[in-house]
Design goal:
cell membrane; single chain; 85% helix
């Protein structure tokens, strides 16, 4: 029974982290959506974000597993520290002007750069998770599906919402990652 509750706890933690990482795509998607976006572009951008939210944590997890074998017990503190730094970065980044961060979404290069920019955080989280034992397939699929879904929601909401909601969404995602980082350390 204890093993089942621990597994359920890990499942919930991964889903919450996936949602926190998706906040970046959601909040920046609102900014792009406010500039005007066609539904076809919503699908293309969201699919790319989903793919990058799978690839980046996957790469991070493999690197994290390697680092864990090198660092041993210190790995928990390194992983927690990375999540704390990432969370703080997301919180402070939410206060930046949205115009400075939104790139042209109409070109293939623009879509790729946007998807990469909102997925880089997933690499860091994957690096942290790679230092622990987690279900690899479930984790990367959860990150990809939730990241893609949140970008769809952000892009569509951006077509009819105010810009301030996006800033709060990114800040909330940063606070969640910061809390998980502290939980890993303590």
């Amino acid at each position: 029974m204890l093993e089942t509750s621990a597994g359920l706890g890990q499942l919930i933690a991964i889903l919450i982290m996936a949602a926190a990482l998706g906040m970046d795509a959601f909040s920046l998607g609102i900014g792009i959506g406010m500039k005007g976006i066609r539904l076809l572009h919503v699908l293309k951008i969201s699919a790319l974000i989903g793919i990058f939210h799978i690839l980046m944590p996957l790469l991070g997890m493999y690197a994290g597993q390697y680092m864990s074998s090198l660092l041993g017990q210190v790995a928990d503190y390194v992983a927690g520290g990375l999540l704390i730094l990432l969370g703080v970065h997301m919180v402070f980044g939410s206060f930046k002007s949205g115009e400075d961060r939104v790139i042209d979404h109409r070109s293939l290069l623009g879509m790729l750069l946007f998807a990469l920019s909102v997925s880089v955080d997933s690499f860091s989280v994957g690096l942290s998770l790679g230092m622990f034992q987690s279900n690899l397939v479930f984790t990367v699929l959860a990150f990809g599906i939730i990241g893609g879904a949140m970008s769809v929601m952000g892009l569509l909401l951006g077509r009819r919402a105010s810009r301030n909601l996006g800033d709060y969404g990114e800040a909330l995602g940063g606070v969640i990652l910061l809390a998980f980082g502290l939980a890993f350390i303590f």
